[in-house]
Specification:
The chain is of the alpha+beta class. The protein contains nine helices and eleven strands.
């Protein structure tokens, strides 16, 4: 599930190698971040000041609005805005250079700094990063487009520890029926109906007129199913306590990784100080759309492969 790209392998990659790994449900891991980090004194500033000043779960920069949220102090906000704006630009440049076709038409989302220890935050289930889940609804409805996240652990000494229960395909096969997101038989149509299309159009129009967050309440048949599955994974004791497909991974300081978080189930069990950049990738840019949650949700889950019998 985790494929390593060190400096040499990254240098010799083809234009679709990284994106093909992502579509197959792998996380691409970089032992050393391929994206340059802020200067050491700037990282120290983020580590020391953000936990004291934070007003939200994270501090986030929104490129489309050139806006920072999460910090109220004007001087600190100005410095943090500048740092995250520059960091976002470096991540965008790296992804555009290494996966040019995959990122065509994408939506560049937030560049966030996560300053708090993930372990033991006592958040509500739906907000907790400690419970295994798949991501649903980045910035409102995705309508089947993919959610890509790029992470860098900038804790100077501590690993960031993740857990997974497998790819969307594997979790859907095991739990799709119990979660109520799988069709009973045949194929389902996930295309929005007329009323849904009109609603989405009104929200897009409202955003163009200045209602910045109108799109956050958009929805679609696909996005409602993904939200239902996300909530099932975080609300259901039988799933939370289960260990089918369970694995843990530790990301050392200053390593980076990227993953389609609608496809790879994940939880962050522990870790502090990380950059997280979010993007929405068009499904039409994928080379293997049949592997996407959108296509998988259209059909009943495939049965667990039968175990092979030993040769006589």
């Amino acid at each position: 599930m985790f494929v390593t790209y060190d400096e040499n392998r990254l240098r010799t990659r083809g234009p679709t190698d990284l994106s093909d790994e992502l579509e197959r449900g792998n996380a691409v891991y970089f032992p050393q971040s391929p994206v340059a980090l802020p200067a050491p004194e700037e990282l120290t500033f983020l580590r020391e000041e953000m936990p004291r000043q934070l007003k939200r779960k994270n501090v986030s920069y929104y490129p489309s609005a050139d806006r920072l949220v999460g910090v109220e102090d004007a001087a600190l906000a100005e410095r943090t805005h500048r740092l995250l704006q520059a960091h976002s630009g470096r991540v965008v440049e790296f992804l555009t250079r290494t996966m040019p076709d995959f990122v065509k038409g994408w939506t560049v989302g937030t560049s966030s700094f996560r300053p708090l220890q993930e372990r033991g935050r006592n958040l509500g289930a739906h907000a907790s990063n400690e419970l295994v889940h798949v991501d649903a609804g980045a910035y409102g409805a995705t309508h089947g487009d993919r959610i890509l996240r790029f992470f860098i652990n900038v804790h100077p000494t501590e690993d960031r520890v993740w857990a997974t229960r497998g790819t969307f395909s594997e979790v859907y096969r095991r739990h799709g029926k119990a979660a109520g997101v799988a069709p009973e038989r045949g194929e389902r149509d996930l295309r929005p109906g007329l009323a849904n299309r009109m609603y989405s159009g009104l929200l897009r129009g409202a955003e163009k007129l200045g209602a910045r967050r109108a799109g956050m309440i958009d929805t679609s048949p696909y996005d409602r199913l993904m939200r239902q599955f996300h909530n099932y994974m975080k609300d259901t004791p039988e799933f939370i306590q289960g260990r089918d497909g369970y694995e843990e991974f530790a990301f050392p300081p200053f390593s980076a990784w990227m993953v389609l978080t609608d496809t790879v189930s994940h939880a962050c069990l522990s870790g502090q100080y990380a950059f997280v950049d979010t993007f929405v990738i068009r499904l039409s840019s994928c080379r293997s759309p049949e592997l996407s949650p959108y296509e998988l949700l259209r059909r009943p889950p495939q049965e667990e492969p039968a175990a092979r019998t030993a040769a006589a």
